[in-house]
Specification:
The protein is α/β, with parallel strands linked by helices. The chain is 38% helix and 24% strand. It has 10 helices and 15 strands.
Length: 299
């Protein structure tokens, strides 16, 4: 078989998808006669009819349907590869869609967004913050951010933000003056605690760890919140103990509005990861973001 021109294959896919030479020509910005000639050459070289043509319609033959099914993804890969090759770091274009936990959107992403977008002015960034664990790829996102225990093992993971984080516990000076300071995690059960309910409906227990000993307690209290900010504000007003990410409590500690408690028992854990599916040709905006993250100094 003589060599087949890639442009002829692309012409076939265009006509087969649109079911017409004129419509395919309009989309391609070429003449219908040039597409017809491309199809004639392709069928002659393959020795098989690919399209049934009438004055009113164009439909693929069985051989044409089979070829279309194999060619469509292959030509998509070729187009993605050519687009990637044409991109340079200073002119990457396109939209990057990320799905991230709310806490990551609030505490981890903000210092990264400005530098990344300044470095890639042709990239648009769309971020959805939510705590529901969804199939981000099926939902149309290019990548997601999760913590290690939530990562799918067939995904590629890239560190994002601080590599170690802690859960911290605190209370206002007024609360501690009135109710005393807990000295052991079990003492938490005798205190009013501000609990957090996740979007899934779960109210998680509080976990503490020291010298390899892990203790889990289910606190009690009259206030259950769905936002970290509301819980911290209530704690500052003396409602009770609050436990959340240390980075979220740090401003209140530094301002003297809250006081750290049980600091020797704060649980440390791995920071978040950007994750995405393994594929040969990544979208250029995602590749740019991955490269940007890998250039960040370790934290």
């Amino acid at each position: 078989m003589s060599e087949i021109d890639l442009a002829d294959l692309d012409a076939f896919v265009a006509v087969a998808r649109t079911r017409g030479f004129r419509s395919a020509a309009a989309l391609r910005g070429v003449s219908a006669s040039s597409l017809s000639e491309a199809l004639r050459r392709l069928e002659a070289r393959l020795g098989v009819r690919l399209l049934n043509r009438t004055t009113r319609s164009v439909t693929p033959t069985d051989a044409g349907e089979a070829l279309l099914a194999r060619l469509s993804p292959a030509l998509g890969e070729v187009a993605a590869a050519l687009e990637e090759a044409a991109q340079t770091p200073d002119r990457v274009t396109g939209t990057l869609r990320l799905n991230v936990p709310i806490v990551v959107a609030k505490l981890v992403l903000p210092p990264l967004l400005g530098p990344f977008l300044h470095a890639h002015p042709g990239v648009s960034l769309e971020i959805r913050a939510e705590d529901n664990f969804i199939d981000v790829l099926a939902a149309g996102f290019d990548a997601g951010v999760r913590y290690d225990e939530r990562l799918e093992r067939d995904m590629i993971a890239v560190p994002l933000g601080p590599r170690r984080q802690r859960y911290a516990t605190g209370a206002s000076p007024a609360y501690l003056a009135a109710h005393g300071r807990p000295l052991h995690p079990r003492d938490v059960l005798a205190h009013a605690c501000i609990r957090h309910r996740f979007a899934s409906g779960i109210t998680a227990p509080w976990e503490f760890e020291r010298d390899g000993q892990v203790l889990t307690v289910t606190p009690i209290g009259k206030l259950v919140v769905s936002t970290m900010e509301l819980g911290i504000s209530a704690a500052e007003q003396g409602v009770g103990l609050v436990s959340t990410f240390e980075a979220a409590l740090r401003p209140s500690f530094e301002a003297g509005l809250l006081v750290p408690v049980l600091e020797d028992w704060w649980v440390e854990f791995s920071g978040p990861f950007l994750y995405y599916a393994s594929r040969r040709h990544m979208p250029a905006p995602l590749r740019a973001f991955v490269d940007f993250l890998r250039q960040q100094p370790p934290d």
